[in-house]
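Protocol step 4 of 6: structure prediction from sequence.
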Amino acid sequence: MGRLFGQLTGRSLRLSITLFLAFILSYIFLGVLAFQFPETLRVMLRWAADAERFLTSTGLPARYNNFIEIYLNKATILLVFLTVIARIVIAVLATVASESIRSLNPPPAKHAGVRKMAPAR
């Protein structure tokens, strides 16, 4: 039971750290786009506005479409896209780091061991 709890705690901690880093990294991406690549940000905002128009004109009943119009705007769509990109970057970097550390400490080789001979009859 203790080992399972430790595994669940470790996984949830890693997931929380990844989500937090993706959140921060997405805003860093947004800042870099705004100051270094303003034309690219403008294009991305236009794509987000097109996606917003597409999603709000799906013909859903008003009770559902109202929530889509309230919670969905071009800034939200852009931040979700940047967060997905940030999660991909974090996953690639974490995999590279994990494999690098793992290659420094390879698992011990399994020895065949000495087999005992069966007693003669």
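Step 5 (inspection) to follow. The chain has one domain: 14-100.
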